[in-house]
Design a protein that fits this description.
Elements (H helix, E strand, L loop, with lengths): L1 H16 L9 H13 L3 E6 L6 E7 L7 E6 L18 E3 L2 E3 L3 H15 L11 E6 L7 H13 L5 E4 L8 E4 L2 E9 L3 E2 L9 H20 L14 E9 L5 E2 L2 E9 L3 H24 L6 E10 L9 H10 L5 E3 L5 H6 L3 E4 L14 E3 H18 L2
Parallel strand pairs: 3-6, 3-7, 7-16, 8-15
Antiparallel strand pairs: 1-2, 2-6, 4-5, 5-17, 9-13, 9-14, 10-12, 11-13
Amino acid sequence: MTDRLADTLSLLERLIAYPTVSADSNLDLIDDLAERLEKCGARAELLHDDSGRKATLFATIGPDGPGGIVLSGHTDVVPVTDQDWSSDPFTMRQDDGRAYGRGACDMKGFIAAAVELASDLRGRDLRRPVHFAFTYDEEVGCLGAQSLVRELRARDIRPAMAIIGEPTDMKVIEGHKGCCEYTTRFTGLEGHGSMPDHGVNAAEYAVRYVGELLALRDDLIHRAPPHSRFDPPWSTINIGAINGGIAHNVIPGKAEVEWEMRPVQQSDADLVQSRLTEHVERVLLPAMRAVCPQADIRTETIAEVCGLEPMSENAARDLVFGLIGANSADVVPFGTEAGLFQQMGLSVVVCGPGSIRQAHKPDEFVTLDQLRSCLGMIDRLFQSLAA
């Protein structure tokens, strides 16, 4: 496995060198991976977004038909702007048993390990297919995975299970909260600050809206499900940004609030949406439109990603237990693409090299020991599929 680690690090170095920040194209990296997998005997297809600048790679080795397993990872990374890195974030650096670089753990390390070992499947008589799903725009709403799942449903491609290789320290994760992100925009009526009754202060109504969000946040604490394993155990709301106004003496005509919700259960998300709708339609808008009939409040959905629900019966979890010698699974507060595959009917687990504590930070790294463990897991998986 020593040579495989060296080859995996070489591929990881190449993947890190592709600056696949979510705002930019990932096509060069995707083309590279597609070519490598095709040399391993894979049937590879690129599923482009509407712009044509990004794509998800879906590749299959083995027989056509239902069943089999998906190895899934996202190819986009978060920006490095204004971060204090010790070296070029897009040039991999090895030091003291660690590989540094943007995406090293989140999550190009897993992708490199999976693609490196794919060559072991070349020409083998697999009993079930192995699918490789490498997506775009996970960091901004799991957009690539949502498109992929829609495509798989439309084609009636039905894998049995999926391993999502997010950084979990190679621990087995069977659940996480959902993540819903919104931008609420307020349109009022500008005016002179000395005559507030002649204008509609968009910033003021944004603050009132935030007040309702904060009240809902407190209510959600008391709705935590019994025996919830999440930390914190309840659904959360976070106010990410409030923007509005141009000067001290001008009534702001525009304002916006960026906020997110991480529901433990769907009923919490439904409560938040219904309460906000009622507050806007019965309280805020009537007051605004009494002065300016054109005043408005509109909410844009940036992303609504479902959570991964822990299941008493989970074939993917039990499979990974056997592959890495674990006997317990945990839940995490951060989101992944796993819930999308679960909604499609797959048995899903999250397990991959690296720590979420390193993700999104300067000097992001994955340890070589974690990569060895990941290679061992995938190697044993591939051996079992060819038995």
